[in-house]
Amino acid sequence: MAARRALITGITGQDGAYLARLLLDKGYDVHGTVRRASTPGEQRLAEIRDRITLHDADMLDVGSLMSVLEQVGPHEVYNLAAQSFVPTSWQQPLLTGEVTALGAARLLEAVRRVDPNIRYYQASSSEMFGKVREEPQRETTPFWPRSPYGVAKMYAHWITINYRESYGLFASCGILFNHESPLRGPEFVTRKVTRAVARIKLGLQDRLRLGNLDAQRDWGFAGDYVEAMWLMLQQDEPDDYVIATGEKHTVREFVDLAFARVDLDPQRYVEIDPNLLRPAEVNMLVGDASKARARLGWQPRVCFADLVAMMVDADLEQARREASG
Ligand code: NAP
Ligand code: GDD
After folding, report:
1. CA atoms of 60 and 39, how far apart (whole Å)
2. Is ligand 2 within 6 A of the CB of residue 305?
3. Which pLDDT does position 2 carry in this prediction?
4. CA atoms of 219 and 283, how far apart (whole Å)
5. Which of 16, 96, 141, 238 could form a disulfide bond with 11, CB atoms 3.0-4.6 angstroms apart?
6. Top-level class of domain 185-217+247-285+304-324
7. Is 189 in the pocket of ligand 2 (CB under 6 A)?
8. How does strand 216-217 pair with strand 249-250?
9. In the chain, which residues fall in CATH 3.90.25.10?
10. pLDDT digits (tens, 9 = 90+) for 160-203
């Protein structure tokens, strides 16, 4: 039997790299879109580069999206591409809207025109809950986004539901809470901390500047979360699901655990930089993934402490390579 084909936008990002590996393990023919850059940004895909096919396309250019869909003929499309860093969304709100919000509309429109039988996954975000209306947050919790990124994700979320309702597309949204890994971008707080901890331990850095240490997040492992994306597209009916661990921790707890992993005292190294505080903060996110547990049979495997340890250990290895040459 011919392999199922999947197309991943944002394959060069953290989740793209984990999802591509998962789909390869499941026997998929895996394709991804990359946007043109003066230097290639495919480092996260190094180990699987010869087993996947990459195509040039940009979420800003609907023609490129239509061409890639026509060329690949995917059974499943995972829309992971986004301007995903919240602080950048205040500096570049229009770009964030173009890529993260309208990009999804362009891709849905391309799917509808090229092959409406394609199953579509939209990377929605817990950032949409923003100033939270209830705790924990579930699929029915009202949204109150607090950043241009959160607003853009809300548009993408609702346009996905609208295409499902208007055209009968098999389109599902995963409302994913924060998920991290050794492949996390270095500007997000978890990876910023674990990289700094490793580099401080090896004498490559002497300070770690952070913003709001009191913010609380529900942090899971990216490898677990991409499995939920795949499960959503294997159901009989499209639907929307919260994906979360159900546990919340402060940034401070993350910092303390990460420094403890290398027997250092964070008080000696961490400084608060007011420039890193946000114009409007999301103080607390914690999700209730009961629906995903019941309907998808999904549950997280990696706990908070193991996630911190995994990330610190990976960054120690990287820092050792940096130190030795
Ligand atoms: P990420 O590491 O920032 O990856 C984003 C991807 O989008 C990259 O491959 C990037 O390509 C691509 N991209 C950006 N602008 C593009 C454009 N104009 N055209 C085409 N591709 C473009 O994000 P992630 O952590 O893997 O997250 C994946 C998705 O889930 C994102 O939509 C994010 O907003 C959403 N999400 C993430 C989390 C989380 O905690 N990680 C939680 C909820 C939702 P380049 O490599 O060229 O920059
Ligand atoms: N990035 C960053 N850098 N965040 C910091 C810092 C710092 O130096 N110091 C404190 N924080 C706090 C932020 O204020 C925020 O409350 C929290 O750490 C988490 O910040 P990020 O790791 O940047 O993630 P995020 O929660 O804003 O957004 C991530 O999760 C969303 C899902 O809720 C991103 O992956 C989004 O794309 C995703 O949708």
Report:
1. 20
2. no
3. 83
4. 14
5. 16
6. alpha beta
7. yes
8. antiparallel
9. 185-217+247-285+304-324
10. 999 999 999 999 999 999 999 999 999 999 999 999 999 999 99
